[in-house]
From TrEMBL, chain A:
The lineage of its organism: Bacteria, Pseudomonadati, Pseudomonadota, Alphaproteobacteria, Hyphomicrobiales. It comes from the Bacteria. Its EC number is 4.1.1.88. One of its GO terms (molecular function) is lyase activity. This is Biotin-independent malonate decarboxylase subunit beta. InterPro entries: AcCoA_carboxyl_beta (IPR034733), ClpP/crotonase-like_dom_sf (IPR029045), COA_CT_N (IPR011762), Malonate_beta (IPR017556).
Automatic annotation (TrEMBL), chain B:
Residues 1-21 are annotated as: Disordered. It comes from the Bacteria. This is Malonate decarboxylase acyl carrier protein. Keywords: Cytoplasm, Phosphoprotein. It is found in: Cytoplasm. Pfam families: ACP. It comes from Methylobacterium longum. The keyword Iron-sulfur does not apply. Residues 11-21 have a biased composition (Polar residues).
Automatic annotation (TrEMBL), chain C:
GO terms for molecular function: lyase activity. This is Biotin-independent malonate decarboxylase subunit gamma. Signal peptide: none annotated. Its EC number is 4.1.1.88. Keywords: Lyase. It is an enzyme of class 4 (lyase). It holds the Pfam family MdcE. InterPro entries: ClpP/crotonase-like_dom_sf, Malonate_gamma.
TrEMBL record, chain D:
The lineage of its organism: Bacteria, Pseudomonadati, Pseudomonadota, Alphaproteobacteria, Hyphomicrobiales. Gene3D superfamilies: Glutaconate Coenzyme A-transferase. This is Malonate decarboxylase subunit alpha. Pfam families: Mal_decarbox_Al (PF16957). It comes from the Bacteria.
Length: 309, 102, 238, 548
């Protein structure tokens, strides 16, 4: 019926992709439960950006703190993808690392990382790169202490560069269709290897290769969310409860999982070939599917769910 | 980078008890506004860091109109500008004031 | 120094370290026991297969249970930039390698990085930066991005960047700057025997991650440690 | 004895010369240069079909590859200067004189070439003007056109982008001219006959499909709160106020935002069925939610839009389609519809001066006019009344007998006070005047003249220029919505407040609109993907607009 869909548009349904880091945090956790660490009033800003004549942000593009989610205490960090592409600078990285280390003391039920990053902030590249290494070490320590670290990915900057590596270190990942996870970005590949290797303007190709649906189908992410904060909240709660341990058995399983992926899909040129081999009947229709239809496909794909992280 | 500071006297304090609020994001054409209830109730100060020099007159006019309209007494406002247009600045200031009144 | 010179210096009595397609795996005698060697040689890019080969070697070492040290020797390009690597989830492969090294460290294997050539970006993070101590040899050239590329992205003149690089180690490529930020713990003396220097590093290993403290002391990362500490303080106060 | 058939004989000679390179009417792409050299004569008037969207690009490449010794001094008469080849021919001397209408992407180069004297400019026209002159004093000797397919008799299927083709062919074929069509494929039977074969002399099988630019796709993801606020004011302060049912929209983000607010904000205001029902408009993807929500009764199109074909096929009650099911567009008819049958044109511009003259010209670009001056003008030949038209007429009538009053078309400029990089929209003097002086144009390239503009809408408010009674009031009304631009800051505050008291200027609060409510949550679609969902998967956006 013409007209009936207009009535169903809910203006309160906050899009994860569109929301700022602060909006995501506020809407993700139990109302009123968020306590920020090093909030904007403390003005812990980058000491380096002024050298480049660039504006700074009061929180250096990352919001961190503690909150309750479904009644259980968590620590969380949210990157602001619109400030400097959510990239890791010195303060930004130091805040994430500090939060992860604090988790060892505080022993929250979980740590949530709301990724939205292009990787390392070039103006502070060495500090950013080192902070990423520190964050990965800290995540491993937190996981080994039995605290799940769950990544949520669906922002406009995606999860690129070192952010992709940090994500790969987490216990669990939830991703939406708009979320992208990758190390080299499309533009970087195109600049270095040419448009024949990767046409970065072919956005359908970009999302097919790095987007949320592909990552979910191939087991690169553990949950697929509609683009709403509510969906991410639901996924986060569920993933916390089924986070794998960090131990030799887990990494042996991951080794086997990743080896099997190369053996099975190593000769595929395009994601649609991968999906076909995963048993998806009409792979060309996957990008156009809505969440429910896509979830039904995922349920039939064995590779999608595993504890091998 | 250019730094600007404007000081105004207001007729009334900004209602509400919220001690601080932040709105907006530092991005191209956008800005971040931090509001703190730290000044005497009839004072308002707005400090701006902007990468685009030479628009002091426009900032002065935008801030003056905002102060006249919102009467943000007691509030110190700090702005990290990413090259926002004046209408965006006005909007963020009003959004910030509304958050403080909550 | 070349990898061959390093291996000769480390293992004057011979070793079982092989290099294939730029991937280094194997072990050699060290002190009373052995030391495992993994790494990337010849400025090779690190892709999904390479990462998996190295993580296999590291996990094998952990499974062996000998708590022998693991040396991660690196002269690499950045991660391999290709559509195929990203299609297959390069981030998972690189993170897996890093996790394997971090697991080894937690399992009692001292992990030592040794950068003797180039390394950059994801390859650097997944290898040398995933060790407990990272040593470098003079002439090593770790970088995130070279200055001309930084100039292109930041739209700043190259001369200005070169000038800034002399006073601001936080963004400029090169070994000195990575030392200043604390990522590289120490620069070895190629004139002295390597086994002693590596042995000393192992003996002097400290718990926890000391890199931000080093960066603060050396001035290359002036605020990171204090920021992390302030977070911990506020978290405790709750 | 008077010669009555000279043109006809010349045409026969051209056709005979061309036949050498053809099998029947069919010419391979490899022989296109030979064909053109055979049928063209120095000094010919040539229409090389360059529409707003569809481009006869294969023939453009062939023309630019002709030998300037053989083919030179052509007089190009075409609506769009879009491809580099369109200007290359002036550099080599193949062409010398130009009469055109629109030059979007080539605007900077055309300015340089005009300045350098490489182009002898007749005039920059509106579409309807140029089409009109095809039948009076700019009739082409040769037309080089584009279509999707043709059969061996030359029957031509243009595809959904019919655009200018019927007009160009009408003027050429019926006045002793030669018509050459490039097609993507030669078929046994065309899906429908857009141009009968006896008007087509040669059919060139192109080496690749003709180029179409997705000019009318606006990504909702890029819409700002300011644009949404302006759209809310326009809907409440103009659409609802005048009861605008028949209209044309420009291609900017502001009007796209209006399209996306109809099913949400418009619905809330209870305006469905009362406004925005009949359109002269390209098939904007952002109109899909309004169509799907039952707001839109019908749409006639100038051209088409990339990715909209399947959607249009499934909505024949809304769009004009052929027996084959695909869209039939027609620029000349749709421009006429926009001029005479619409009660409002609403669109954006780059500069507005103190009187309300507007221009999209900057000092280094000659973008041309296209159709906006036709839509954006009050047609004095109109004689049918509507409520909207009559209300505007009453507001604008200052003197005279009410019984002899006529209506007014609403011509609305929808602008943000600052454009990209903080460039002010409101200026003391249009750049167009300086440009005209620099390159010696007799007529300054003004897009919409002040006396045609009825309203200006900015984020600061709506200025109703119909209600201004003298030049000073008009100036203050414009300054009064010009925000923090120098023009805006130069206002007389007392006069502006007086105008506001009279309703000449209306602020958001005067309209009952809270600026802080201007939120992206109001958009019926926030992304291209949302538009695809609204269309039930029928809209197929080009790859560059996708993020899935």
């Amino acid at each position: 019926m013409a007209g009936d869909r207009a009535a169903s548009i809910d203006p309160d349904a906050l899009s994860w992709y569109e929301a700022t880091a602060r909006q995501r945090v506020t809407a993700l956790v139990d109302p009123g439960s968020f306590r920020e660490f090093l909030g904007p009033t403390e003005r812990r800003m980058s000491p380096h950006l002024p050298l480049f004549d660039l504006p700074r942000a009061f929180d250096d593009g990352i919001v961190i703190g503690r909150a309750d989610i479904a009644g259980t205490p968590v620590l969380l960090a949210a990157q602001e993808g619109r400030f400097m592409g959510g990239a890791f600078g010195e303060v930004h990285g130091g805040k994430l690392v500090g939060l992860l280390r604090a988790a060892l003391d505080l022993k929250p039920r979980a740590v949530l990382i709301l990724f939205d990053t292009g990787g390392v902030r070039l103006q502070e590249a060495n500090a950013g790169e080192t902070a990423i290494a520190e964050a990965m070490r800290a995540i491993v320590d937190v996981r080994a202490a039995g605290i799940p670290v769950v990544g949520l990915i669906g922002g406009r900057a995606g999860c690129y560069g070192g952010g992709g590596l940090i994500a790969g270190t987490c216990s669990r990942l939830a991703v939406s269709e708009g979320g992208r996870i990758s190390v080299s970005g499309p533009e970087v590949i195109e600049t270095n290897k040419g448009a024949e290797e990767f046409d970065s303007r072919d956005r359908a190709l970009v999302w097919r290769t790095m987007g949320g649906k592909h990552r979910r189908l191939t087991g690169g992410a553990d949950a697929f969310c509609a683009d709403t904060v509510a969906a991410f909240r639901q996924a986060a709660v569920a993933l916390i409860d089924r986070a794998p341990a960090f131990d030799l058995a887990g990494l042996e399983a991951e080794q086997a999982r990743l080896a099997a992926r190369i053996a099975r899909f190593g000769d595929c040129r395009d994601a649609t070939e991968v999906w076909a081999r995963l048993g998806v009947n009409d792979p060309a229709t996957v990008p156009g599917m809505d969440t429910a239809a896509f979830e039904a496909i995922v349920a039939r794909v064995g590779e999608a769910d595993h504890d091998a992280r | 980078m250019e730094s600007l500071t404007f000081r105004h006297t207001t007729k009334t304090p900004l209602p509400g008890t919220q001690p601080s609020a932040v709105t907006g994001v530092v991005a191209s054409g956008n800005l971040e506004v931090l509001l703190e209830r730290v000044l005497p109730p009839d004072a308002c100060e707005v400090a701006i860091d902007t990468p685009i020099a030479g628009y002091g007159d426009v900032w002065a006019a935008v801030v003056a109109d905002f102060v006249a309209r919102a009467q943000p007494g007691g509030i110190r406002i700090s702005i990290n500008d990413g090259g926002a247009r004046p209408d965006t600045v006005s909007l963020r200031l009003l959004q910030g004031a509304r958050l403080m009144e909550a | 120094m070349t990898l061959a010179e390093i291996l000769l210096g480390l293992f004057p009595d011979g070793h079982a370290v092989a290099v294939r397609d730029g991937l280094v795996t194997g072990s050699g005698p060290f002190g009373d026991g052995r030391i495992h060697v993994v790494g990337v040689d010849g400025d090779a890019p690190l892709g999904i297969e390479g990462a998996l080969t190295l993580s296999r070697a590291v996990l094998d070492a952990v499974r062996a249970g000998d708590v022998a040290p693991i040396l991660v020797a690196v002269d690499s390009d950045s991660q391999r930039m290709s559509r195929r690597d990203e299609l297959l989830g390069l981030n998972e492969y690189l993170a897996h390698l890093a996790k394997a090294l971090l697991l080894a460290d937690r399992s009692g294997h001292p992990t030592i990085g040794l950068i003797y050539g180039h390394s950059a970006a994801g390859a650097f993070i997944a290898t040398a930066l995933a060790t407990r101590v990272l040593a470098a040899l003079p002439g090593a050239n770790p970088s995130v991005m070279d200055l001309p590329s930084v100039a292109r992205v930041t739209k700043l003149p190259l001369e200005k960047l070169q000038d800034m690089a002399t006073s601001t180690p936080v963004f400029a490529p090169g070994l000195d700057n990575m030392v200043a930020t604390g990522a590289v713990h120490v620069v070895l003396d190629p004139g002295k025997p390597l086994p002693g220097q590596i042995g000393a590093l192992i003996a002097g290993m400290q718990p926890g991650d000391v890199r931000d403290r080093l960066g603060e002391e050396r001035g290359g990362r002036p605020v990171a440690r204090a920021v992390a500490a302030a977070v911990a303080d506020q978290a405790r106060l709750g | 004895m008077t010669e009555w058939r000279g043109e006809r004989q010349a045409r026969d000679a051209r056709i005979a010369a061309g036949r050498i390179h053809a099998a029947g009417k069919i010419v391979p792409a490899t022989a296109a240069v030979d064909l053109l050299e055979a049928i063209l004569r120095p000094g010919d008037r040539v229409c090389l079909e360059g529409d707003n969207q569809k481009q006869a690009d294969c023939l453009a490449r062939a023309l630019s590859a002709c030998d300037p010794e053989k083919i030179h001094d052509l007089h190009m008469v075409q609506s769009g200067i879009v491809l580099p080849e369109h200007l290359d021919v002036f550099e080599t001397g193949i062409a010398r004189r130009l009469d055109y209408s629109y030059s979007g992407p080539q605007g900077a180069r055309i300015a340089r070439m005009l300045y350098g004297g490489q182009i002898e400019l007749g005039a920059v026209h509106t579409y309807l003007e140029l089409f009109a002159r095809y039948f009076v004093d700019l009739t082409p000797n040769v037309a080089l056109i584009a279509g999707v397919s043709a059969d061996r008799d030359g029957n031509l299927y243009t595809g959904p982008n019919t655009e200018d083709t019927p007009t160009v062919v009408e003027a050429t074929a019926f006045k002793n001219g030669v018509v050459v069509a490039q097609v993507n494929e030669i078929v046994e039977t065309v899906p429908r006959v857009d141009i009968p074969g006896d008007r087509i002399d040669f059919v060139v099988k192109a080496d690749r499909p003709f180029y179409v630019e997705p000019l009318f796709t606006r990504d909702p993801a890029a819409m700002t709160e300011t644009q949404i606020l302006i759209a809310m004011m326009a809907i409440k302060g103009i659409y609802a106020e005048y009861g605008i049912r028949r209209l044309n929209h420009g291609i900017g983000f502001g009007t796209a935002a209006i399209e996306l607010l109809l099913p949400t904000y418009g619905e809330k205001l209870g305006l469905k069925g009362k406004i925005a029902t009949h359109w002269a408009l390209n098939p904007h993807p952002t109109l899909i939610p309004a169509i799907e929500s039952g707001w839109v009764k019908q749409v006639h199109c100038f051209g088409s839009e990339v990715g909209m074909d399947r959607y249009i096929r499934e909505r024949p009650d809304i769009f004009f389609t052929g027996a084959d099911g695909s869209l039939r567009s027609n620029r000349a008819f749709c421009q006429t519809a926009g001029l005479y049958a619409c009660d409002m044109f609403i669109g954006a511009t780059l500069q507005i001066d103190l009187m309300g003259h507007s221009s999209t010209i900057t000092q280094s670009r000659v973008a041309g006019f296209g159709g906006a001056p036709n839509m954006g003008s009050d047609p004095h030949g109109r004689r049918h009344p509507t409520d909207a038209w009559m209300k505007a007429g009453r507001e604008g009538q200052i003197v005279g007998d009410p019984a002899l009053m006529r209506g007014r078309k609403l011509v609305v400029q929808l602008v943000e006070t600052f454009g990209d990089k903080l460039v002010p929209t409101f200026v003391e003097t249009l750049d167009a005047l300086e440009l005209a002086r620099k390159i010696g144009l007799e007529l300054a390239p003004v897009m919409i003249y002040a006396d045609d503009v009825t309203h200006i809408v900015t984020e600061e408010g709506i200025a109703n220029l119909l209600l201004c009674r003298d030049a000073d009031e008009r100036e203050q009304a414009i300054r009064g919505v010009a925000g923090y631009t120098e023009v805006g800051r130069g206002r007389d505050r007392a006069k502006v407040e007086a105008l506001r008291a009279r309703g000449v200027i209306r602020r958001p609060e005067d309209l009952g609109i809270e600026p802080l409510d201007a939120d992206r949550a109001l958009l019926a679609a926030k992304s291209i993907k949302d538009l695809v969902h609204w269309s039930g998967g029928l809209y197929e956006p080009p790859a560059r607009f996708r993020n899935w």
